[in-house]
Specification:
Elements: E1 2-3, H1 9-26, E2 30-40, H2 47-64, E3 67-75, E4 80-88, E5 105-108, H3 114-122, H4 128-138, H5 143-152, E6 156-159, H6 164-176, E7 179-182, H7 191-198, H8 204-213, E8 217-218, H9 224-230, E9 239-243, H10 248-257, E10 264-270, E11 279-280
Parallel strand pairs: 2-3, 7-11, 8-11
Antiparallel strand pairs: 1-4, 2-4, 5-9, 5-10, 6-9, 7-10
Helix pairs in contact: 1-2, 3-7, 5-10, 7-9
């Protein structure tokens, strides 16, 4: 479940649905059914808000071809909404985050920085045109990226959400017994995220991510604003796809062909560091 991150309840419902479905796509699966999970302050907020949230989620489920089979709700002090999603996949075709191999290249399919931008929104400092682009990104399903991954073939994948790009890359490296090198200059980032990070509009989760993963990370001469974006918790983020080097160009071309236009190669898998460091930036 996620707390409301935008003021428009219909958009929030779509974002939450896209976020909930993403785990299935990250494993190469096909989402089939979903159940709503709701926390709602029914005594202080009009029920029409919840109706719009559910309508937005349903629109996104319909787009994904998913059947809504019910849900659960509780009274809560703030609005929270998510989905429990079930999918199918052949057991021999599951894509996990533990299959990365030395020499593989890493492709990120959506720009990062959504946590910083939603923090700016809460501070009423996010321009309307930037908000529009942000909502469009967070409501975009990862289905096309998943299709490209299955068509070309990938060794590992994870979706990038609350643990940030660095956190999820760490998980991939740990599960694979490798290290990962990220080129911070090639990571797709929402341009305004760097600007707001410089202004100090940082979500609390960024500090938690940084504190937890910093001991595992070697960094070069990188500015603090860039590091803030790399540790920024994402909502409905993209896929981090690990692909054999010889398939990299084909994967990138297939992603772009399917409309995943911001996908970019931003790192590679290297031998596990003897010092125990997971990420080299």
């Amino acid at each position: 479940m996620i707390a409301a991150i935008v003021d428009d309840p219909y958009s929030f419902g779509m974002i939450a649905a896209a976020n909930g479905i993403s785990d299935i796509y990250a494993m190469g699966g096909k989402p089939i059914t979903a159940m709503n999970i709701v926390g709602f302050p029914s005594e202080t907020m009009d029920i029409s808000v919840l109706s719009l949230i559910l309508q937005g989620a349903l629109a996104k489920l319909n787009e994904a071809g998913i059947i809504l089979v019910g849900g659960h709700s509780i009274r809560n002090d703030e609005v929270k909404f998510g989905l429990s999603v079930t999918g199918t996949i052949h057991p021999d075709r599951i894509v996990t985050k533990g299959g990365a191999k030395v020499g593989d290249r890493l492709i990120m399919t959506k720009p990062i920085g959504t946590g910083i931008l939603t923090t700016a929104l809460k501070a009423e400092m996010l321009p309307a045109d930037v908000l529009k682009k942000l909502v469009a990104q967070m409501t975009r399903l990862n289905d096309k990226a998943c299709d490209a991954m299955l068509e070309i073939g990938a060794n590992a994948c994870t979706d990038v959400t609350g643990f940030a790009l660095i956190g999820h890359a760490c998980e991939m490296a740990e599960a694979s017994g490798t290290s990962i090198e990220i080129d911070s200059k090639k990571v797709p980032m929402i341009p305004e995220a760097l600007q707001f990070a410089h202004m100090g509009l940082i979500p609390e989760g960024m500090y938690a991510n940084w504190e937890y993963r910093a001991p595992m990370v070697n960094t070069g001469p990188i500015d603090e604003d860039t590091m803030s974006v790399l540790y920024d918790p994402q909502t409905s983020g993209g896929l981090l796809i690990c692909v054999p080097e010889e398939k990299t160009a084909a994967m990138l071309a297939k992603l772009h062909e399917k409309g995943v236009n911001e996908a970019a190669v931003m790192g590679k898998v290297i031998e596990s560091s003897p010092a125990g460091k997971i990420i080299v930036i």
